Amino acid sequence: MPPVVSVCIAHFNSIDLIDACIESVRRQDCDFEVEIIVHDDASTDGSAHHLRTTHPDVHLIASTENVGFCVANNRMADAARGEFLLLLNNDAALHVDALVSLRAEAERLSRPAVLTLPQFDAETGDLLDIGLQLDPFLNPVPNRDRLRNEVGTVHGACLWIPKALWYELGGFPEWFGSFAEDLYLCCRTRLAGHPVRALGVSGYRHYVGRSFGGGKAHAGQLATTVRRRALSERNKTFVMAIIYPAPVIYLIMPVHLMLLLFEGLLLAALLCQPALPSQIYLPVFGSLWDRRKLLCKERHIAVRERRATLRAFFSVFDPLPHKLRLLLRHGLPTLRK
């Protein structure tokens, strides 16, 4: 009998965290079969051998080369036997009632939907978000209202989706590499008229920022890496180019690109890091040009499959730019190499 859900764990060089992640799945208080799949992305810390010897029941996909988060999850989805997929980060651990809560919501909705659970900081236990709203420039805005279940996007660290919907939307775009692939999938989901929901119950613990650095404030100070920021700005712009319906795209995209240039110049001056524009912001323009044919093709598909009205699609958006809110609250970020 096939499993109800396939838990797909993308893994790279976190041998100290993977056991807790897998054990959190094994400890689930549910009466249905669960499949665990781990994609080891050519780890150099002995993870593949550790997984084979310590977790022989886990379906291990051991890659011979580092292919990134998108390819890893697409491979696991292809191998999965479950009706549903749960994408789970290797630095995350589920609460014991996580899977039963997600399945109950999926059955209650009786329609394809992307779901997630409340995210808690693994180090402090603090609630980080219950899904995410979006600002006009696709920056994620943490939602902490347990009664606000309709959200703009959810973290790929804990993302539940019917396998049929995954294939309907084409999975993750492998040319993204890593970062904002969850934003892309959720925006495509909502554009196609399917719900993206965050449950107000259960949850998961997450060591945020272990892979790319950043992701949350430490001691009131925002800190991130140049690589994370570069991937974020590039891929969010890709998502905007693909999914923003007309006429909104013609209004937002020029403003977005001008603000990126302004932000790059401002941060370079204030942080005394003159290379920032060429490291983070200018490559966005080159990437848009280089990928223009692919972006047009993906946009054509997304627009053709659009079922949501403009009002419904933008109902989960916060009009205030989130970067401005963060600047006022935390000041300038620090950017590490």
Automatic annotation (TrEMBL):
UniProt superkingdom: Bacteria
Record-annotated Glycosyltransferase 2-like domain positions: 6-154
Transmembrane segments: 237-259
Gene Ontology molecular function: glycosyltransferase activity
One Pfam family linked to the record: Glycos_transf_2
InterPro entries documented for this protein: Glyco_trans_2-like (IPR001173), Nucleotide-diphossugar_trans (IPR029044)
Keyword terms, alphabetized: Glycosyltransferase, Membrane, Transferase, Transmembrane, Transmembrane helix
UniProt record similarity statement: Belongs to the glycosyltransferase 2 family.
Protein name: Glycosyltransferase
